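Folding Query — how this chain folds
Tokens — whole-number codes for backbone shape
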Amino acid sequence: MVSKILDKLPLRTVLIVPFILQILGAVGLVGYLSFRNGQKAVNNLASQLMTEVSLRVEQNLQIYLKTPHQINQTKLDAVKLGLLKMENLSAWEKYLWRQVQLYPYINFTSVGNKKGNYRGGQQLSNGSRMINVIDASTGLNFNSYNTNALGDRTTVTTLAKNYDHRQHPAYQKAVKVGKPTWSSVFVSLLEPTLLISAIQPVYSDMNQLEGVLFTALRLDHLGRFLNSLKVGKSGQTFIIDRQGTLLATSTTEKPFRTKGNERQLFKVEESSNPFTQATAKYLTAKFKKLDHIKKSELLSFEIDDKRQFLKVLPFQDGKGLDWLIVVVVPEADFTKEIDANTRTAVLLCFAALGVAVGIGILTSQWVTNPILSLNTAAKNIAKGEWDKTVESERADELGELAKSFNSMAQQLQQSFETLEQRVQERTAELAIAKDKAEVANQAKSTFLANMSHELRSPLNAILGFSQLMTRSQTLSPEHQENISIIRSSGEHLLTLINNVLDLSKIESGRTTLNPHKIDLYRLLNDLEDMFQLKADDKHLQLVFDRSPDVPQYIETDELKLRQILINLLNNSLKFTHEGGVAVRVSKESLGRNQQAEGGNIEHSEVSPNTELSAINGLKISQFSQSNNQIIATPNDDSASTSSFFLHFEVEDTGPGIATKELDDLFEPFVQTKTGKDSQEGTGLGLPISRKFVELMGGKMSVCSTVGKGSNFKFDIQVIAVNAADIESPKPSRNVIALEPNQPTYRILIVDDKPLNRQLLIKILSPLGFELKEATNGQEAIEIWESWEPHLIWMDMRMPVMDGYEATQYIKSTIKGQATAIIALTASVLEEERAVILSAGCDAFMRKPFREADIFDAMHKHIGVRYIYEDPAQSDLSAIKEGDRAMSAADFVKLPDSLVADLKLAILNADMDLIDTLSEQIRLKDAVTAGAIANCIENFEYDKVLNLISEAISHE
């Protein structure tokens, strides 16, 4: 593919494009690697920066949060040393007041005993300090005293009345935990800041609770520390708890909201800072719950299609504190220089591209100009201008090429003159050979047409007269049997002729597919009935297996499918002497793996899958099939018109076929050793069958083992149809007279063969038609002009004037338009139909024909109405002639399926089925039906069975 595309490109393009692609490739690769390295560097830098910032925050938190507990520990040490007493809190005032001065980020430090007394020293952000008291002197009110520089009380403010600090959540939590821990974060009542208290219970030597120590830490100092950190140009750092409450942030946003006179904490997702809010929402979406963050996480996400780096670090101090340190930095803070470098690389790429194009154009011109000169000279030589040469003064490879080209041109001129003379001689020889081939082909077509006409015309008489004679009730049984033999032999000869003509049409590519909507089950049952008696005579088992999913109603070429199966079954039954023959039908999807083109033949054993051993070693697949019953599948009424494949197998237990004979098995007129020994057949059945299968969209193959048998397989493509689309077969009825009150129909019979004319006269004259004969087209025209027949039976091949010319003459007149002309021809070529109809014939009928077809055509084209044989009257005549002796010939002329069903019904003693079959036989031969009924009534079953077997042996 690539080479074909390159072959179409101009040489200049081929020379320039590689330069451009190389430059683009090199610069693009460098730019890509530079960009990727920049991205990697950005990721590393962002990771290092955020890790460093988060670690600094963590270290500062550890120091910052350790101080309150250290203050509590010093107070506890004073208690343990006896310097301060939990029962007397008055001595604590100056101690707590001085202690709060030492730590500017401590809001208050206090102590409360179990009696409800409380002392605390508090320092505000403006530097003022206070003493907070709850005891009997304050009436258990929470009083806050302002102090002077010496820590003495001055003015007093009551913050809460009847306040019991023991009910405070911090006091209760300390008692519950029983060790140093933290209170919940809360908003200061006096200042705009968040506070968190380090709390520690105090126990006596007897492990009795004496009180709780408090030290409150200001979190606004933590926010100022975060704000002092430099995280890129626009990065942020904030601290939240596991519930998502914002505790401290590097932005100017306060970590609380004021609603009325009350300050409240809020979730970080409710932050007024869009950057903080988007980061919090990403964390929530990522982890669902913040409790799921167990370790340090380095993440990235996008805000408005801009990438952000995110670092989340869990922080625990071992005393119940569990916070998250979040550092977020926009990628743009790091990529400014990288973007500048990328733009520079793109500009360099375009510059290099321009230089490469310029150099490529100059180079291509230097290389291609001499080549273009060579191309022009070559075109001139192609036009026959041998004197045009290539002028080149270059001494390089192209100069040497020009000299070689000029030398080659001279040699070509000489060779061309010699070759031209030889071509003229060979052309003359080929023209002669072509004329001979056309003459031979025409001779072959003429021979086939003549053979078809000359053989089918007498066969028409043989089969027609034998058909008339079988209807006679005056012939003796012996003569009836002879007539049956004549008819059977004639039909066999007709089959051989059709095979030869079919093969000729296949080889010339004139065979066409004629699909019809058919009942597949009925076709299979008819074939089973047709061959069952033959199998019984040879004591063979004949099995028809049909897969349950095979549809009953399909659209395909019924005649070709029937011929394929008949050919295969005939061969199997002919060469099989023990065991049996199995026919299997299954459905395959259209997308199956088909065999390779060329009809490859399998030489392997038959695959044993889905098979069961049966009588005499015959393999029968596990398909359900009722005997001679047509059972509609559930989907028959709603069958779709989808296309699919039907798979057929005809397997026998015969002598098998040698491997060396398999390769030529499907060649015309080739027979296997077994076939030659039998001295039967022509070697045309299998080649015709395979060609028909290929025409129907499938393949045929064979598996065979000498001594075990053969298995022929083929597929055909079909379409499922609805049951309503199938035409029901019309029962055959014998015409016995014309209906009354009809005009006297004048029928002209035109044929150069007396037997053919006599056959039609024998068929038509008993019904009262006026008949005249003509031996050629000229006589037909003369009789037509004077007698004006209603219908003309016109043979197409006659001396003096053929049927084509006579039909054209008659139909060219106004009077001739009222005359129906039906062509009779022995030709089987399908294209002959179009020629005949174009000549003006109203219909087309091939020889040999059936008398029912003659009557149907006359009814269709001139409206003749008939009286058919009345079954009731036939019953009466049959009863009267019931005593007539019955012979094997009576069964020979009956349909094979009826005879087979009758035999099976007698063997099974199924009286209901015998009565039904007798009624069907009565429609065809009332006398024979009456004789059969007589035998059944007299219990002469053996007599009927013996006559049936004798009839089968004569076939």
